[in-house]
Design goal:
Blueprint: H1 2-7, H2 16-19, H3 21-41, H4 48-72, H5 79-98, H6 106-116, H7 119-139, H8 141-144, H9 148-233, H10 240-264, H11 270-273, H12 277-292, E1 295-301, H13 309-329, E2 335-342, E3 346-353, H14 369-378, E4 382-387, E5 393-400
Parallel strand pairs: 1-2
Antiparallel strand pairs: 2-3, 3-5, 4-5
Helix pairs in contact: 3-4, 4-5, 5-6, 5-7, 6-7, 6-9, 7-9, 9-10, 12-13, 13-14
Length: 401
């Protein structure tokens, strides 16, 4: 439940104001349609020429809104908003000058001004817009039926209403943006907590495995070493083959005991602690040749360089697993070739034998291939396992730079 709550979806991208933008588009369309209908059929509709001019100006205002205003409302305040208002304010004033019904579009103009401009600029543009409306009423007092005092009173009321509406819109926008920022911060915090929780779980599991390894494998290898020493002590000097095998078994048990202790202490593998990756791989190949009697060849191509600890551990483990598979499954093998290549695009490890090979259909089910592939995938690499050119098996790892 904790993991689900920490990694669940969180809406951190869009504030409340931007969610209402489709509603503003709808309101603009409704008011534009109503204004057009009133210009054509309403009481006090303008005569023919002015009616056509009013409809033309209304159409221009709608087109200007579609081209600029509808786009800018989805964004943060910027230059496009100024461009939209630079066209919308004079078009609205001209529409009102031709047809009184055009005053309806002011119900959309003022919210746009406050949504798209900072506070001081919004106040200035609102005052200018209201002043232009009052000027039209004064100049065309005969057509609008308003004397000077009435026009000034209506302008004052409109200005106060527009300013109150603007302050309210500004507060709503700022609150919604603050909320969006808080939601974003919450999402980031949840992601950090999820990562901390994951690392804590990995650490707990690692500690559990370390205890298990210490109490089982490490103790078991210690017992094996003691048994080998006892067996070697009871072997005659002339039993050279037996003593050689016991030495090899002792060395293997000691190496694996060191590996187990390194895992318990969360240290790098012993072979990588005091040597480079090429030296560590070369040591594995030499030991493999001594224990199996196979002819081996190891080459390093390019200029060796340090890789990340995880990448070096993966290549070392793949080498160990590939050599173990040759021991167990490559019947008839007489030769093994390994190559470690350092290139500009990455590092490649290739191990090939001339044994009997295997069925490609079984490549994902045995021979430790699944474990190797998981290791390689964890560091962003690619593992390829398949038949060799004539016979045998090729294991190839490619790690990108």
């Amino acid at each position: 439940m904790l993991g689900d709550s920490l990694t669940g979806p969180v809406d951190a991208g869009q504030d409340d104001w931007h969610r209402t933008v489709p509603g503003w588009h709808l309101a603009f369309a409704v008011l534009a349609a109503l204004t057009g209908a009133l210009i054509v059929t309403g009481d006090g509709a303008p005569p023919g020429v002015e009616r056509a001019s009013g409809l033309a100006l209304l159409a221009m205002l709608c087109c200007w809104y579609a081209a600029t205003g509808a786009r800018v409302l989805h964004r943060e305040r910027g230059r496009l908003g100024v461009v939209y208002l630079a066209g919308a304010v004079p078009l609205s004033a001209a529409l009102f000058a031709v047809a009184p019904q055009g005053a309806l579009m002011s119900f959309m103009l003022y919210p746009h001004i406050w949504a798209l401009l900072p506070l001081r600029r919004a106040v200035a543009v609102t005052v200018a817009s209201v002043a232009s409306t009052a000027a039209v009423m004064i100049v065309r007092s005969d057509a609008y039926g308003q004397d000077l005092s009435s026009a000034l009173l209506m302008a004052a009321v409109a200005l106060v209403a527009a300013l109150v509406l603007g302050v309210w819109i500004t507060r709503i926008i700022e609150q919604s943006r603050q909320r969006a920022r808080l939601v974003g911060e919450l999402a980031a915090t949840r992601a950090e907590l999820a990562e901390v929780s994951r690392e804590a779980g990995m650490l707990a599991e690692r500690e559990r495995l370390a205890k298990e390894i210490h109490d089982t494998l490490a103790q078991g290898f210690t017992s094996v070493l003691l048994l080998i020493e006892a067996a070697k002590a009871g072997t005659c000097e002339r039993d050279r083959d037996a003593r050689t095998h016991l030495d090899q078994a002792r060395r293997t048990a000691m190496d694996n005991l060191a590996e187990a202790r390194a895992l318990v202490a969360a240290l790098p593998p012993p072979r990588l602690r005091d040597a480079s990756l090429p030296d560590a791989v070369s040591g594995l190949i030499e030991r493999f040749a001594a224990e199996t009697g196979l002819e081996t060849r190891f080459t390093v191509n390019g200029t060796p360089r340090r890789l990340t600890p995880n990448e070096e551990v993966v290549l070392l483990r793949v080498t160990q697993e590939a050599l173990a598979n040759v021991r167990k499954h490559a019947s008839g093998a007489t030769r093994l070739e390994a190559a470690l290549g350092y290139g500009a695009s990455g590092v490649t490890l290739r191990i090939a034998d001339d044994g009997q090979g295997f069925d490609p259909d079984d490549a994902g089910t045995g021979f430790g291939i699944g474990g190797m592939r998981d290791r390689v995938t964890e560091v962003g690499g690619v593992l390829r396992v398949g038949p060799g050119g004539r016979s045998g098996t090729v294991v190839q790892v490619e790690l990108p730079s």
